[in-house]
Amino acid sequence: AAAQRAVVAERTAALGETNERLDELKSEVERKGDAAGDTDPLVNIRAALAALREETMQLELSVGIIHQQLGRRQVARADRVRKKSARSRGSVDSRGTAGGASTANSNEALAESLSLDDEGSLGLESS
Predict the structure, then answer these.
(1) Is residue 85 classed exposed, middle or buried when 0-12, 13-18 and 19+ CB atoms within 10 A define those classes?
(2) Is the pTM of this model over 0.85?
(3) Which of 28, 37, 48, 50 has its CA 20 to 30 A from that of 19?
């Protein structure tokens, strides 16, 4: 009878441990189920991606505007250099070309003062 009580006590203790483990597993499954059904993180990620796309578009627009302004300034600078060069060679008419100098020579001077950099952007050669 004492041996049977010991076996029953052991099995009762094992059953208690098993029930505790079962409760832990049920709680874990419930937590994971709640997390899987929670779409807040996904919504937040989508909103962040939309914000990044908008910011990227704004930055690309700003870069384009700045690039256009830079090109315009470089062309204006090249024109000033061409006019200065023409003045140093002789008189300058209303178009900024040297009197007696052909349009082809003026265009060559402009082409020499301009170059394309490694990225294909309009740049000025440093003289």
Answers:
(1) middle
(2) no
(3) 37
Q: Report the b/e string of 86-118 with b at 16+ CB within 10 A.
A: beeeeebeeeebbeebeeeebeebeeebbeeee
Residue with the two structure tokens 């994971």: 32
Q: Which residue has the higher pLDDT, 4 or 122?
A: 4
Per-position b or e across 19-55, b if 16+ CB within 10 A of its CB: eeeeeeeeeeeeeeeeeeeeeeeeeeeeeeeeeeeee
Q: Residue 82, exposed/middle/buried by CB under 10 A (0-12, 13-18, 19+)?
A: buried
Q: Which residues lie below 8 Å from residue 49, measured CB to CB, with a gap of 6+?
A: none
